[in-house]
Amino acid sequence: MALPFFYENTVSAASTHFTLSEETSKHCTQVLRMRTGAALQLTDGRGNLFKASIISEDKRKTVVLIEEQTSLPAPAKKTNIAIALLKNNSRFEWFLEKATEIGVTEIQPLLTDHTEHTRFRHDRMNGILIAAMLQSQQAWLPVLHEPIAFNVCVKNATHQQKLIAHCEDEQKNFIRDLPASNDVQVLIGPEGDFSHEEIRLALDAGFIPVSLGNTRLRAETAGVVAATLVVQR
Amino acid sequence: MALPFFYENTVSAASTHFTLSEETSKHCTQVLRMRTGAALQLTDGRGNLFKASIISEDKRKTVVLIEEQTSLPAPAKKTNIAIALLKNNSRFEWFLEKATEIGVTEIQPLLTDHTEHTRFRHDRMNGILIAAMLQSQQAWLPVLHEPIAFNVCVKNATHQQKLIAHCEDEQKNFIRDLPASNDVQVLIGPEGDFSHEEIRLALDAGFIPVSLGNTRLRAETAGVVAATLVVQR
Questions:
Q1: Residue contact B138–A215, C-beta within 8 A
Q2: pLDDT given at position B1
Q3: Is the per-residue pLDDT at A14 higher than 90?
Q4: Which of B155, B150, B84 is nearest to B116 (CA)?
Q5: What is the interface pTM, i.e. ipTM, of the complex?
Q6: Ribosomal RNA small subunit methyltransferase E PUA-like domain location, by residue (chains A, B) (predicted)?
Q7: N or C: which end of chain A has fewer CB within 10 A?
């Protein structure tokens, strides 16, 4: 069975001892009942994995000995999914979890013409990314950006390959037919799709229109389908 | 805006009048407040779409006039996802919804070595497929089979292309590299993966081992990723 695995963004091998956060200390000692000598794994979310063992149990300040460090290279494929905030938070959170499992490297929430203004709780959303990263045994945490307006995203987009998925009845490409790229951004619209003006703006800025299949997908499904097709090319 | 769209599995154009089910009658009259003359669309889940209008409102027995029928051909691609029942019902239900949106045509719940026996509520699960079909504006309802044991599924599998996704460290193929097929079944294991014996049984029966990417996916994510990669080939 895999070692208990936790995220601690300040852990490093610069020091041999590390004090776990209160949350991790509590989980180790109260929930998992780990005692002195028990082994665990830590990641800083930047590719570094640390094997460690408990030298001093404390429900708020457990201290571990860092025994080994492995550094995993950053994913070769940079996949940025820029997706409109959704009315339904739990659907957006499902997307965050699935996108992380699949290997998306950046998530850019968007405010679009058809988005109802939604409060964005960065810490909560980031917590979902962390949990999904740990669950899928990865060591690179996707970057979760603050929400920005669609036109700002489009204007500042510097990705090598820029794609927009929309529902209007227009000529679109299949992702599988496009040349593979290691630096991709895909724009995913809200429940009501992008507005006509938004689509035009993106196409004028060099975004390639793509089809995600023959069926009408919910926004969070579109995000997961796009992530799969791009990461798996 | 699209017409209100409902599922009625007994509707046909054989008769010009049709009495809506109690559930649909209630939804039309009480929730949507539709009155005599209001237009709606119905599907029987077997590719038939009917345009209709209300001729007699009743919260339990609304009668509609069938005005038009369109028949959509069955999807050319038959995609059967055989997926282990999961401990967490809501994750399994999420998979059902997404699989339907993506265009999966059959879902075969499996009982596997690592599956905890889970009660399977066919009506409830079918209701999720129906809602997802309507939401994604489709007219073909995926077939939801009763759960069967893994070895029975493998023994009786007659699909042209048979795939198994597993997590063991072995030679696997990428779905994109396999020849396209219009008759595919993919086996997806439970949270603890298929057992070694199950994998061997499937390989001996001609199932091709496939990789769903470089990361460790939750079972329901694996189902959605496999569905995407197969339907979108």
A1: yes
A2: 61
A3: no
A4: B84
A5: 0.94
A6: 20-64
A7: N
Mutate to test the interface with B, among A92, A93, A232, A233 (most CBs of B within 10 A): A232
Cα A81 to Cα A73: distance, rounded to the nearest angstrom:
21
Instruction: Quote the domain boundaries for residue A205.
Output: 78-231
pLDDT in tens, A147-196: 999 999 999 999 999 999 999 988 999 999 999 999 999 999 999 999 99
Domain boundary among B53, B71, B89: B71
CA-nearest of B43, B46, B185 to B107 is B185
Instruction: Give the pLDDT band (50/70/90) at residue B14.
Output: confident
Cβ distance of B103 and A214 shorter than 8 Å: yes
| pTM of this structure | 0.95
Q: Is the dihedral of CA B203, B207, B211, B215 positive or negative?
A: negative
Flag whether pLDDT at A64 surpasses 70.
yes
Whether residues A153 and A127 share a domain: the answer is: yes
CB interface of B with A, residues 85-124, below 8 Å: 94, 98, 101-103
Residues A22 and B58: their CA atoms lie apart, in Å, by 60
Q: Which of A94, A214, A221 to probe the B interface (max B CBs under 10 A)?
A: A221
